[in-house]
Amino acid sequence: MSYDNILTNTEGGITTITINRPNKLNALNKDTIQELHDAFSDANKDKSTKVIIITGSGEKAFVAGADISEFADFDVKQGGKLAAKGQELLFDFVENLSTPVIAAVNGFALGGGLELAMACHFRIASSNAKMGLPEVSLGVIPGYGGTQRLPQLVGKGRAMEMVMTAGMIDANQALNYGLVNHVTSEDELIPFTEKIASRIMRNSTVAIKAAIKSINANFKDGVDGYKTEIKQFGKCFGTEDFNEGTTAFLEKRKAEFPGK
Ligand code: COA
Fold first, then answer.
1. In the Cβ-directed half-sphere of 210, how many Cα atoms lie within 13 Å?
2. pLDDT tens-digit profile of 41-54?
């Protein structure tokens, strides 16, 4: 499929999605959110894609936020709809994808940009990255899950401070906060992220899918994460991957997972 606002490339088991509006610092407008939904959905269905990496084009930004020009004149109803639609199409969708998604944060990740990075399964940043939720400086609050996912990742007090001050933290502080897992040089960001992706690819895709579901269950209202884990654990025993993984171990050879 061809897109106007994003680029996609699949190679060696990795689909890389690049948000491509560098003149607008990759700000998320309505069309970009729809295109991202379609690209994530396609990559998740594609059997040759084992890991998805999302990044931004240009040297300055991952994503500098939701596109302010699109919602500046919205009323209460339109505002609520904007958040609900965005969460459904992109942010919740990415978090619940069964294919691992890594955010390679290559510059500014602000507002909706940081919210997108936080919806990914984990994050790696280049040393020039700057992260923040500046919405209160615009008279609004984070609406794409930021008030929920930021405290999950950095703790309530740090989230409160980041949101209230509308300030930015640099890559090292984000690492210190646990908001990103690794910091690399700008040149190393994609190669390093691909290296981690290759380590993930050696493992069972069906077991990884069960693990994502179980870990996410810990953060869902009204869902018992322990029960989810028991159910997903049990289901693994009925898979060809489990048979191959345990047999290969006992035969002292490398597992060749069929992904079933
Ligand atoms: N929405 C729409 N356009 C945006 C944008 C956003 N969130 N962030 C940046 N842009 C646009 C700018 O309007 C500018 O467009 P123009 O050249 O047509 O005027 C272009 O991207 C470059 O941005 P600019 O502000 O000139 O770059 P800078 O290096 O001076 O500043 C930032 C970089 C990130 C500090 C600044 O762009 C910024 O504060 N952006 C908004 C961040 C924000 O509040 N995000 C949360 C939104 S809810």
1. 23
2. 999 999 999 999 99
Question: Does residue 1 have a pLDDT over 80?
Answer: no
Chain segment 169-210, per-residue pLDDT in tens:
999 999 999 999 999 999 999 999 999 999 999 999 999 999
CA–CA dist 148, 26 (Å, integer): 23
Residue 260 belongs to a domain: no
Task: Read off the pTM.
Answer: 0.97
Residue 87: domain span: 6-201
135 is annotated as an active-site residue: yes
Q: Is 42 left (phi over 0), alpha (psi -120 to 50) or beta?
A: alpha
Q: Is residue 258 part of a domain?
A: no
Instruction: From 21, 23, 24, 30, give the residue whose CB has the most ligand 1 atoms within 8 Å, as the site to mutate.
Output: 24
240 Cβ neighbours under 8 A, 6+ residues apart: 258, 260
Which residue's CA is the closest to the ligand 1 atom numbered 44? 134
Distance 229 CA to ligand 1 centre (A): 42
Give me the mean pLDDT over the 130-149 stretch: 98
Q: Is 115 a catalytic residue?
A: yes
Q: Are residues 213 and 183 in the same domain?
A: no
Q: Would you place residue 2 in the very low, low, confident or very high pLDDT band (cuts 50, 70, 90)?
A: confident
